[in-house]
Amino acid sequence: MTLPPLTLYLAAPRGFCAGVDRAIKIVELAIQKWGAPVYVRHEIVHNKYVVDGLKALGAVFVEELDEVPPDRPVIFSAHGVPKAVPAAAEARQMVYVDATCPLVSKVHIEAERHHEAGLQMVMIGHAGHPETIGTMGQLPEGEVLLVETPADVAGLVVRDPQRLAYITQTTLSVDDTAAVVAALQARFPAIIGPHKEDICYATTNRQASVKAIAGRIDALLVIGAPNSSNSKRLVEVGRAAGCGYAQLVQRAAEIDWRALDGIRSVGITAGASAPEVLVNEVIDAFRARFATTVELVETAKERVEFKVPRVLREPA
Question: Where is the active site (predicted)?
């Protein structure tokens, strides 16, 4: 049987960012150094395939510190944690390693600096997301106000409109965040923004690559987890850029082939916590059903690399 023709537009950059790569290495090196089990507070990154792979090596994932035996090491996820978490670990004399992405840590430092200058913070982010919880937990309660949409800005009750600064979750949509920032600046003209954009380079690059292919594809598949903020934003960016069908899938088995019936072109990208092996799995699934041509669309080159903490580079 002759397979129908299909062009796959493979977005680049895609997949692992430097912060995710570093966080995974931290867990692997911790297991090598201290042996299994090593505990990880929250999923190290939001991807089931990655988490399952680390479980097989000896990582145990928990949600709270009190689930960790005091004599075993614990790692804090790439999303960051409130200040109370490492303080509690120190109180219990636990060995811990902080795998917070350095770009998230930059936002934490920024928030502290503004707080020390007497400013109240406004955070643009998603309620309940681990990164938002971690960032808001850097300062005393009430010092960080959370907004998600321009409409939220209208309802903000602040201490002093002249003494405000804003920060953002690193994995948001660049376009959506711009609308919220505009609303903040319109209502609070004196509000201070970050010295450098809080949204991380990887989020920005992956969204730009989706925009570059959105106009020439019939469908977009984003490989990523349903609890991955940056992956969900890629779906939204694809739709906003004109792609009529954009879907988040964790693996090839989740592809809705009926929805793709009659298509001639598909874009493929992956969230920052999705490994390339899952991209290849999806490409292979298309090759089994279509006479597939793969075209790479690269909009940026990434050479960022973050070192793992010194404690993991020292002998046991």
Answer: 131 (proton donor)
The tens digit of pLDDT for each residue in 261-293 reads: 999 999 999 999 999 999 999 999 999 999 999
Which amino acids are annotated catalytic? 131
pLDDT tens sequence across 4-58: 999 999 999 999 999 999 999 999 999 999 999 999 999 999 999 999 999 999 9
Residue 265 marked ligand-binding: no
CA atoms within 13 A on the CB side of 275: 13
Q: Is 229 labeled as ligand-binding? A: yes
Under DSSP, the state recorded for 175 is: H
Is 170 annotated to bind a ligand? Reply is yes
Nearest CA among 44, 88, 48 for reference residue 68 = 88
List the beta strands (DSSP E) in the chain. 5-12, 38-41, 59-62, 74-76, 96-98, 120-124, 144-147, 164-168, 219-223, 246-249, 265-270, 291-298
pLDDT tens-digit readout, 128-153: 999 999 999 999 999 999 999 999 99
Count of other CB atoms within 10 angstroms of residue 162: 11
Domains identified in the chain and CATH numbers: 5-16+201-298 (3.40.1010.20), 18-101 (3.40.50.11270), 103-187 (3.40.1010.20)
